[in-house]
Specification:
The chain is mainly beta. The chain folds into two domains: about 1-100, Immunoglobulin-like (Sandwich); about 115-770, Maltoporin, Chain A (Beta Barrel). It is built from six helices and 41 strands. The strands form six sheets. It has a 22-stranded antiparallel β-barrel. A five-stranded mixed β-sheet has the order 10-15-16-13-14, with no helix packed on it. A four-stranded antiparallel β-sheet has the order 3-2-5-6, with no helix packed on it. It is a multi-pass membrane protein.
Length: about 775
């Protein structure tokens, strides 16, 4: 009897167990997106009923396996977004589609990389979609200058570099698709070799970000990044744009999607081209200022289980003319041109680009692998290779003009390994960089051949206490610099007036700590306060140490100092943000002390005569510096269809050793615009903008060739319209820059000694999306 009861009990037990196992084999799946239907990665999906958890992938997809039958309560959470809840009963065939709304309290903090929210205490600003659309054919620096506190350092009207709070070149790091962009960025007329058409997001971080991104990030960081690709469909866009000034055009094609037979693979291809002729000021044509570009890029993304793979390649190729008026033959000519402020020669329009000119090709390739160790721990490895080939041409007396005066081949390899767990991150970064001056130019290179070895280790952690959010990090970097090249000895000149040259060999060791500490406080749903203190450093670059020759692109003669020490920068940024439904105000107050600040100082008492002409001399030197200022941005919707925007920036820079001012510091400026939304679609609007740039009153007359130019006002007008023709979505943009054709010069233009800025320019562009 007991034997039968025991067997019955076993049968009941296994039957119930089998039934339980059968009832817990369901899968809950779905997608999480933001209000613009863009997929969100790293959303925590929790089942409150059984405490199981998973995270969305880069496409916003999630799968919660081994769920039991019955009523289930799911929560969806991500820092910077309101938590969402969803109740459902299993079994069900429903695929969830969750829309995450941005939390007003955390609206400024959201930059999601994998599972960690970064820059929560930094001053971070992004370029709006409307602005990117209006300026999509412009160089990167000109687009970024629409952000308060960001300006440009120009070499004429075709070459520009971003300036953040008064700092530029090697003090501003540019991340191109997660790779630290490495070209010959030490040159004031060496623009970033990045095609803005490859970017879906353009962001600027104003703090000293030496911990997260490595040495050199004293001024800030520019991030050019792309959105994840949706492999479930094929989409694309075509951009066509023409402009009146330069009689040029720009074209861009982009296509992306997936492969049905490989559902985990996503791809994107893109190409753009540009051709512009000689530009024109309000009164005269600028000779030899044309530009030509051809750019290509490709992206592959693959995800399988816990593995994430990404391949990216881009080619940037440009041919730029350098204004004829910057290259003159005698001392009397250069002084006369500076006094005149405009060229003495009349030029005609042409698309031809002749010497002096620049030819730059930049290739970037990367492979990135990520692996989820656990639900919130991930390891990422990225290797990147870059090749930058820069050729600068000048008028030749002996060799052909097709032989470059400078031919520099820079190759950079970087390897980054990071482990991210929750709110903590540790990593190691290495870089090997080799610069070779290609022989056969018949000239002595302005910078020597060199090898640059870098190794850094870092750690960052975040803590969250209700309305308070903190971040602290530290980093150590070591750099070994080995050079070999020629240098002039002007103390030794033979009877024929020839300056003796000698072989230069040298090696330098640089190492230092970087650190950061920040705090964000959400006082209410409207007010957010941030404070961030960053310590960063920068080793002197090859041109600052060893240059001694003509810099063809800028038309200057530069002399370096091999005894320069590393810069050390301490930057404190305080941000105050107020946001309501119809108004937002953001103020950034910053101060930065830079020990041994390196700069090129114009020497008004000296010019250098060479067989190619006469050029102003710039000497590299260093002094202790103090930068401080304020940036303001206001956006106000004062009616159902009207809005107003105001941006202002003040920056001050003092030479503490000599109690004077540094050259090439941006003057005070204000930009304001009024916008009328005349249609139901956000893309249907008119916008009128006004730009005021003050004269730079804070300058040292002893360190420049002429006084800063007067202040100026510019007016720009923009119109946009989105419509559909034969089911084809089209957006049209019309722009008129320098509406009243003002003749002006800008203090931040290195060609201001010889010419004015570009006059009126009318642009008309169409974007076809499919």
């Amino acid at each position: 009897m007991f034997r039968y009861l025991w067997m019955l009990a076993l049968l009941l037990h296994f039957g119930l167990d089998a039934n339980a196992q059968t009832s817990c084999l369901f899968t809950i799946s779905g997608t999480a997106v933001d209000v613009e239907a863009k997929p969100l990665a790293g959303v925590a999906v929790r089942n409150a009923t059984n405490s199981s958890i998973t995270y969305t992938d880069r496409y916003g997809n999630f799968r919660l396996k081994k769920q039991c039958a019955g009523r289930q309560l799911l929560t969806f959470s991500l820092l910077g977004y309101d938590t969402q809840e969803k109740t459902l009963s299993l079994p069900t065939s429903e695929s969830l589609h969750i829309t995450m709304k941005i939390s007003i309290v955390h609206v400024q903090d959201v930059t999601i990389t994998g599972i960690q929210s970064e820059h929560i205490t930094s001053s971070k600003h992004h370029l709006s979609a409307d602005t990117r659309q209006e300026l999509r054919a412009k160089p990167l620096a000109e687009m970024l200058s629409q952000i308060a506190g960001v300006t440009q350092l120009n070499t004429g009207s075709t070459i520009s570099k971003p300036v953040i709070n008064g700092l530029h070149s090697n003090r501003v790091l540019v991340l191109n698709h997660g790779v630290r962009q490495e070209g010959q960025q030490w040159g004031a007329e060496h623009a970033p070799e990045i095609d803005p058409f490859t970017a879906d997001r353009l962001e600027v971080i104003k703090g000293a970000e030496g911990v997260r991104y490595g040495a050199d990030a004293l001024g800030g960081v520019v991030i050019s990044a792309a959105n994840p690709i949706d492999p479930s469909k094929i989409t694309g866009r075509v951009d066509l744009l023409g402009q009146s000034n330069g009689r040029g055009g720009v074209g861009n094609v982009r296509l992306e999607g997936g492969i049905t037979s490989l559902p985990n693979l996503a791809w994107r291809i893109q190409a753009s081209t540009k051709k512009i002729g000689n530009l024109k000021t309000a009164e005269y044509i600028l000779g030899n200022t044309g530009a030509q570009e051809l750019n290509l890029s490709g992206l592959l993304q693959y995800q399988n289980g816990n593995h994430d793979l990404e391949f990216f390649y881009s080619h940037f190729g440009t041919n730029l003319g350098v204004f004829y008026g910057a290259h003159v033959s005698t001392l009397d000519d250069i002084l006369a041109n500076i006094e005149r402020g405009r060229p003495s020669t009349t030029y005609n329009f042409t698309y031809d680009i002749e010497s002096p000119r620049q030819r730059v090709d930049h290739d970037l390739s990367k492979i990135k692998w990520g692996y989820d160790l656990t639900g919130n721990t991930k390891i990422e490895t990225q290797f990147a290779f870059q090749r930058n080939r820069r050729k600068e041409y000048d008028l030749r007396r002996v060799l052909s003009d097709d032989t470059p005066m400078a031919d520099m081949n820079l190759m950079t390899q970087t390897l980054d390994i990071a482990i991210k767990s929750g709110h903590h991150r540790i990593g190691i970064a290495g870089m090997l960089q080799v610069n070779n001056n290609v022989p056969g130019t018949g000239t002595t290179p302005i910078i020597p051949n060199f090898e640059n070895h870098n190794l850094g280790i870092y750690a960052i952690t975040q803590q969250h206490w209700g309305k308070f959010h903190g971040e602290i990090g530290a980093r150590y970097d070591y750099r070994y610099f080995d050079v070999a090249g020629f240098r002039y000895d002007y103390s030794s000149i033979d009877e024929n007036g020839v300056v003796r040259q000698y072989l230069l060999t040298d090696n330098r060791h640089f190492h230092n700590w970087s650190g950061s500490a920040g705090l964000a406080y959400h006082a209410s749903s409207a007010w957010t306060l941030k404070t961030n203190l960053g310590l960063a450093w920068r080793a002197p670059s090859a041109n600052e140490l060893y240059s001694d020759g003509l810099h063809h692109g800028s038309g200057t003669y530069e002399v370096g100092d091999p005894n320069l020490a590393s810069e050390r920068g301490y930057k404190w940024v305080n941000s105050i943000s107020f946001k309501r439904e119809r108004i937002s105000i953001t103020t950034d107050l910053y101060a930065q002390y830079i020990r041994d600040y390196i700069y090129a100082m114009p020497n008004p008492d000296s010019v250098r005569q060479t067989i190619r002409g006469t050029f102003p001399v710039f000497n590299y030197r260093q002094q202790d510096a103090f930068f401080y200022g304020v940036d303001l941005q206001l956006d106000w919707e004062f009616g159902a269809a009207w809005s107003y925007a105001l941006k202002g920036a003040l920056v001050r820079a003092r030479d503490l050793d000599n109690n004077t001012y540094f050259p090439f510091i941006p003057a005070d400026r204000i930009t304001q615009s009024i916008k009328w939304q005349y249609g139901e679609k956000p893309e249907d609007y008119f916008r009128l903008a006004h730009v005021f740039v003050d004269r730079q009153h804070r300058f040292d007359p002893a360190t420049d060739y002429t006084s800063p130019p007067p202040s100026y006002h510019l007016f720009n007008a923009y119109a946009s319209r989105r419509f559909t023709i034969y089911k084809q979505d089209i957006q049209a943009n019309l722009g008129i820059e320098n509406l009243f054709n003002v003749l002006y010069r800008d203090y931040m233009d290195r060609m201001r000694y010889f010419s004015h800025q570009m006059g009126r320019n009318i642009t008309l562009g169409f974007t076809f999306q499919f």
